[in-house]
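Q: Here's a chain of 339 amino acids. Please give me its 3D structure as tokens.
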Amino acid sequence: MPFDRFRFPIGRASASCAMALAAACAVYDDSLLQASQDRGGDVGSGGALLGSGGASSTNAAMGDVVTGDGAPGGGRSGSGNAGAADVDAGLGMGGAGIGGPLGAGGASVGAKGGGSGTAGTGEAGTGGAVSVADAGAEAAAITEELIDDMEDGNDYIPAVDGRRGTWSVGNDATAGGEQMPGNPFVMTLIPSGRVKSMYAAHTWGHGFAGWGAVLLVALNQLSHDPKQSYDASGCLGITFWAKVGPNAATSYKIRIADSDTLPEGKICMGMGCNDHHQSLATWTTTWTKYTYLFVDMSQEGWGTPQKPFDAAHIYDVEFQTSEAKPFDFWIDDLAFVKK
């Protein structure tokens, strides 16, 4: 089984480690990542944006999420009024497919249509994700708990609710491959901004032929401290805004490392580790809000099979390339979806 080296660009807290790459499925050992350290909107009556493969129902007044029964690859149009009525919000629970149409006169979920709403344009969800196009207003159709809005420009996440951690990047060290920026990671100024947001996490590069490149945020680890898990059992998933650059890859993986898939959890061993629960994502060149539920995530299957996803002991949120072509993607306003 061939061996390679995991490489970070040289920086304050960069690190390298030996790792094995499986021929059938190139992976990386993210347990050896070293993070740098020291340091609601109104929904117009009518339509609802559907994710792929079925729908969930969100009570606009209470925020309770209930699994719906849409057929995989199908979906249905929304009906109902803003505020108190149930609205099919499109937290898709099925496989990939085309989202259902908007109800007549409805606004995209989360867009501040107000009143009777204006016609919304929703994109097809992928892998159970909800997507809401940025129509000039922030989306707020679900209850969120902010992890980082990136506006401080540095690599630290706010120390809130027991979280402490940093952003970092890494790649498979393919000769000639390039990834920017390096570590310590810094946020990038958004050209012309995005509504009220001025900074976002941005990484770009090319030439990685193994498992690719990754942007990740540790939730409970600073500097060279041992990795510790974070309790997200009160959460349903994650949500964030994303877009890709022109002529860049559009397919990515959203991966959540937990105690069953990282060596630190002392459950998996060797090459059986790092097969994290994940969702496949397809992003566009337009800023769009996406939501990925833990229940829709699954392992790829090459690692040690684990128990159901352990949201009470998660370590990292990872955004990884999934195709061997130039990549260029932005992540902004990362948050947990609350129960």
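Q: Can you summarize the key feature?
A: Residues 1-127, 133-140 have pLDDT under 50 and may be disordered.
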